[in-house]
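Exercise 7. Given the components listed, write out the predicted structure of the assembled complex. Treat all entries as one system.
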Amino acid sequence: MPDISKEQVQHVADLARLEMNETETEKFTKQLGDIIHFAESLNELDTTGVPPTTHVLEIRNVMREDTVEKGLPRELVLKNAPDTQDGMIRVPTIVE
Amino acid sequence: MSLFDHKISELHEFLHNKEVKVSELVDEAYQKISETDDKVKAFLTLDEERARKTAAELDGKIGSPEAENVLFGMPIGIKDNIVTKDLRTTCASKILENFDPIYDATVMEKLHKEKTITIGKLNMDEFAMGSSTENSAFQITRNPWNLDTVPGGSSGGSAAAVAAGEVPFALGSDTGGSIRQPAAFCGVVGMKPTYGRVSRFGLVAFASSLDQIGPITRTVEDNAYLLQAISGLDRHDSTSADVEVPNYVEALKGDVKGLKIAVPKEYLGEGVSEEARQAVLNALKVLEKLGATWEEVSLPHSKYGVATYYLLASSEASSNLARFDGVRYGYRSPNATNLEELYKKTRSEGFGDEVKRRIMLGTFALSAGYYDAYYKKAQQARTLIKKDFDDVLEKYDVIIGPTTPTPAFKIGEKIEDPLTMYANDILTIPVNLAGVPGISVPCGFAGGLPLGLQIIGKHFDESTVYRVAHAFEQATDFHNQKPQL
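Answer.
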């Protein structure tokens, strides 16, 4: 596996909705490269036919009664919103 | 002597016999905090007015049946990633600096039923990502045993506050060692329960398949009382287990005669300091004298634990932390002109470096073309690591080793090098990957700093873990040592 490139780091940052300036991109390229190299030690393991573990408990489809319950009052829902107007959350322009 | 040098059951007796009032316990907490927290910096937020008001109410109930419950009126500190209704909950992140939860975590509801009193919220590594509490956006917590060293992390505030005697006990959370490692560094008792034992509802999610809430206390008995109160199935957390919760305090009464202990050679080998190794060997001698036997075993995939963990935990984190977008709650960047910029600027200005690093690693491991090579490979490695534990625990009652390879390190020593910092969790991470319970109890000192003994049990067998921990504690004096502040 070749080193991770600055362009890859920029691409991943974009996917994660993070902004990086030139200095940060360089730092993260080096650090992520080191971490990914380290993670590649897992390639020493033969995992042919080994099932993946997503979860340690044997839990399948936890069901509950589909009962109607009251939702949260609007003022509580909006309590922590950074910007509101007329009982709604306000965001900047979405469509130019 | 401080009131909090007593066990919870003793404090309860004092209340019962009307020798001490609940308001005096609360006074003691805030008095200790005012004396020591300038140095230790464990608390991010205090809830003093409400705590004193609740204490006054509870004082009126002494003598009623409600007050017979052992946790009644006990002051407690809560890690700041557990949501507390109308009490600021920040995860030690700028992105949640002014977040005021509108509901209580299930563990908080359970504690309210027990009538504990929340003293305040405790510092941590931002979003529980770190091993030193240096990643807090607000302050660096210091180890009460030596203020130049870290308290461990990510529940560093919880462990430091208990060690400093600011509160008798606290809640932490543990994803890869975040309860046990700070408990070891601060010379207190920290339990990571079996995955599913305690509801995660209201614990701000980091890595959902690994996170567990657990108690940090001065003694094993206190720990058992607190876990008893917070355990159990919760309809709000579909990963909480429908498994009966036994009486943990009763479980302490048994002895360890005939107990079979496994000691993994990987836990005493390369990378583990001589002091930690020696402290564990001494502890095994103590347990042998009490009638237990031990044998060396192997957990052959231990060395892959850290790599597996960082891929899986970061992948889960990258998904969980997508919710912090500046729209519905938390910090919003004032510098955005459209929605795309709002997301990017809010997250870039709101998250610290370690959180960004892990979001990046996780996003990379889950991205098209890399998923099979990294994420899926790590999930398969997890299967092998879990099988190591299953195989050993089929033949032995508990697994014992050090909690950490070394005692607490210096503030600033590892913060610039993520991989060195990650290696510090090599002995705690596999326990989370396997989902089994593990406790750290004080087992020695090196250079004036505490060392922790890690006792790991079978799924949902916290009782045996507690029994061994208690027997060891009763036969030694490490838990009676207190830092001089």
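Discussion: Chain B is about 40% helix and 15% strand. Chain B touches chain A through 67 residues (CB under 8 Å).
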